[in-house]
Design brief:
The longest helix has 14 residues, at 29-42. The model is unreliable at 374-381 and 397-410 (pLDDT under 50). This protein has eleven helices and 22 strands. With 410 residues, the chain is an alpha/beta fold. It folds into two domains: 5-372, 3-Layer(aba) Sandwich (Rossmann fold); 374-410, no CATH class. It has a 13-stranded mixed beta sheet. The chain has a seven-stranded mixed beta sheet with strand order 6-5-3-4-7-8-18. A two-stranded antiparallel ribbon has the order 21-22. Helix 2 crosses helix 3 (59-70) and helix 5 crosses helix 6 (176-187). It is globular, with a radius of gyration of 22 Å. 28% of the residues lie in helices and 28% in strands.
Length: 410
């Protein structure tokens, strides 16, 4: 078994709650330890195996994921309902086990016998997450145990997580953000509440309050949805912070939730990340959020941010746009397209994010577009994303492609 620090709290096997469910059931850390060890036994000992898991937000998927990972195997967390991706993954990566529901039951299927599997896996490999990037077919992001542990501990540090915290897990577990919520709370010895309902459910806020959740993490669409439910009118006395990542949240919603949390003695974190960095890259300290809603902030603890120009040279001046580069212990091992790629070790020293950013005089970064969504006009770099943002804020929308096609000169 690989000595991964991510599992140190589980291994303590005490009576603290680990997983809490809406029906009143609780799995303690001791229960979770027993369940994960039992699942690991089902995978057998010996060689490192690849286990593909249907990443539902359920105790079955969580126990299987932690059991396989804790035993030193590599895990692929795949979307539950994407049959095409599952078929492509099975063909390309030849997992040794699959674990997913069938006929109403979760079933562990041994796809290959020991000694008969595909090429061996690199000993550092822990997790595969599928991403399509900005274009092209899906590919696997290869993450190590050290990647996951470093990012989990960094997040727990700047969110100041303790064993007294409890999160509501509403984000998919095939999504790096969702997994980072799970990881960061486990390394802090905190608990995870699984509400079992959508954020738009009329019972969602009530369940959060009754369960004693101290925090909630969502993507921009999550906030758009809960805003329609009157979430901010609900009294949630234990909620001490909320986080958003996974895209650009509208500045007006950032202000609304920043002010809402501040009025109730809490904090609102705007964060930025990519799957290639095991989730988190940057965050805005809540006290620095006022009037700077467009910023992604500063690098997470243990990481560093910089900018490079088109020629690959560093850009040191404030107010100059360049590609955002992140370095830190959570940067992925690399990509993989098939089973043979899983033999390779770490190949990425610094992550070229593909995002174009600027740094202000205070050292805070903001994204102004994607590298693929820029044009140079008369020697000037023109970003389509920032143009669209400005037009939207001015009450206009850029014309659709159909409108452009039909334009005629006057």
């Amino acid at each position: 078994m690989i000595p991964a620090n991510l599992f140190s709290e589980i291994a303590r096997a005490d009576d603290r709650p680990a997983l809490v469910f809406a029906d009143g059931r609780t799995l303690s850390y001791a229960d979770l330890n027993v369940r994960t060890l039992r699942f690991a036994e089902r995978l057998g000992g010996g060689e490192k195996r690849l286990v593909a898991i249907s990443a539902e937000i359920s105790e079955h998927a969580i126990v299987a994921y932690l059991g396989a990972l804790g035993a030193g195997h590599a895990v692929a967390m795949l979307p539950p309902c994407d049959d095409r991706l599952w078929r492509e993954f099975l063909a390309a990566f030849q997992p040794d086990f699959t674990y997913r529901p069938a006929d109403g039951c979760w079933r562990l299927v041994e796809e290959s016998r020991p000694g008969q599997s595909g090429p061996p896996l690199h000993p550092d490999l822990a997790l595969l997450l599928m991403t399509s990037g900005s274009s092209g077919p899906a590919k696997a992001v290869r993450l190590s145990h050290a990647n996951l542990d470093a990012n989990a501990r960094s997040i727990a540090s700047y969110l100041e997580l303790t064993a007294a915290d409890r999160t509501a897990l509403v984000l998919p577990l095939h999504y790096s953000y969702g997994l980072s919520v799970l990881h960061s709370h486990l390394v802090a010895g905190a608990s995870i509440f699984i509400p079992g309902v959508s954020v738009v459910s009329e019972n969602f806020a009530r369940l959060l309050g009754e369960s004693g959740c101290t925090n909630l993490s969502g993507v921009p669409y999550s906030y758009e949805l809960i805003e329609k439910t009157g979430f901010r009118t609900k009294t949630l006395k234990t909620l001490r912070f909320m986080t958003v990542a996974g895209g650009r949240l509208a500045p007006e919603l950032i202000r609304l939730y920043r002010d809402h949390m501040r009025a109730n003695g809490g904090r609102f974190f705007v964060m930025y990340g990519q799957t290639e960095a095991a989730a988190r890259i940057a965050f805005v300290p809540p006290e620095s959020l006022a009037d700077n809603e467009e910023r992604i902030g500063i690098a997470i603890p243990g990481g560093s941010l910089s900018l490079v120009g088109d020629d690959g040279q560093p850009l040191d001046r404030a107010g100059v746009a360049g590609e955002l580069v992140y370095a830190g212990p959570n940067v992925m091992m690399g990509y993989g397209a098939d089973r043979t790629d899983l033999q390779r070790g770490a190949e990425v020293a610094a992550l070229m994010t593909g995002d174009i950013a600027m740094r202000d005089e205070d050292g805070f970064y903001r994204i102004v577009g994607r590298k693929s969504r820029f044009a140079k006009v008369a020697g000037l770099r023109i970003g389509f994303d920032i143009m669209e943002q400005v037009l939207a804020e001015a009450g206009s929308r850029p014309p659709s492609s159909a409108t452009i096609k039909d334009c005629r000169p006057l």
